[in-house]
Amino acid sequence: MNLTLVNHDRRFAVEQAVFNYFPHRDGGSAVVRLSPSGRLASAVIEYNNQSASGRAWVGANGSLDNALRLAFYRAAKQIVTPPPWGALTGVRPVKKAIELLDKGQDIVNELQRRYNVTPARADMAADCAATAVSLREKLEPRDVALYIGIPFCPTRCSYCSFVSSSVERDAGLIERYIDVLREEIKAAGETVSRLGLRVRAVYWGGGTPAVLTADQFSALNGLLNKHFPLGGLWEHTVEAGRPDAITTEKLNACRVGGVTRVSVNPQTLRQDVLDTIGRRHTVERFFTVYEQARAGGFEAINVDLIAGLPGDDPDGFLSGLEQVLTLAPENITIHTLARKRGASPHPMATAVAGRGMAAMLSGAAQRLRESGYRPYYLYRQKFTEGGFENTGWAKPGTECVYNLCMMEELCTVLSLGAGGVTKVVKRAADGSVNIKRLFHCKYPLEYIGRRDTIRHIAASFEAALGE
What we know:
With 467 residues, the chain is α/β, with parallel strands linked by helices.
């Protein structure tokens, strides 16, 4: 879409709106204008031989970006079907819901009225906001969460856009990576102890942390318990991941090391779809591993499914969900397929999105609510098919603290390992929040070669907390 800006330079904000309504940017034009007074935003869109206009006032304490986007939305919705999250473009729509809740306003009504959010999404945001605020009230200023990145996978799935390395290609890197991670655990633990911080949640993500051996899990968990103050820990999660990487020995090593929650992620229970996306495990393997995890005595198990995978359809996706529901995991996460940055949509996935992505997600939400689950956190990705979301569902009282802290930025999160982002969160008495981000090395090989980064991150973390 050809975009023209008049009397302002807020291109990024407007491009977010363009992508929300016209994700493939297939022709057309738009003129987004700010009045000379700076008080009125307007948009005129020409698309597929149709023309529409919209306006929005810039409030006294309002955001110029929001007004420009809203003007664009009011024009666009006359031409194309509004996206499920309406005028909300960010990855964290629940933040807006939390703002409304803190002001004592009706979240569902206000999200629909102000931002054209659909009723179903407004309900989900309200549930997530209530859960986040409840946890926020329990957290104290010195509480932190800890993330440990294991950016390796057995193989790379066809849809994946995360930074991770295939074990087939980079197996020799793992032990070298762990050597550096050991150093960082020791240094970070000493810093956390010296500052008098209290770790409330530990989360191992990736990649697929289960590529580690049982001995490696034992050694790293031993270091965590030795160097970090974990006496006030509420949960310890390992996103074990792919069933083909999980063994009873690894699960036992995690449990002995203090892990209380694990995630077993088949992504689909259709064997033909597993084969299409490059997963090297069977449906039967998932059920075997799940039972091993249940027998391991973990407090909570999460299962991930992805809606919209190539070759899937609503009936197949919802059938898979029914099979997962028979297992009664404490948490179920429903992801929406997000295509790789810069890549064309997979033709089969595009067909699914056109035919039934909404049916998959609405059907899943209905069955999950009927089965006693509630949405507790959600986020969006820029290239998600259909403009939908990824949602964590939980049985009440089993929500993952780390997911809430990370997604809603409720407390400081210290990230160790390649690809991590440390967030230093400082909340003022008036409720305002200041967040400082510290970016780690992105790739495993870079992390291995930059031991100096460990000291730099630790020093920057300590300095940011003292500001």
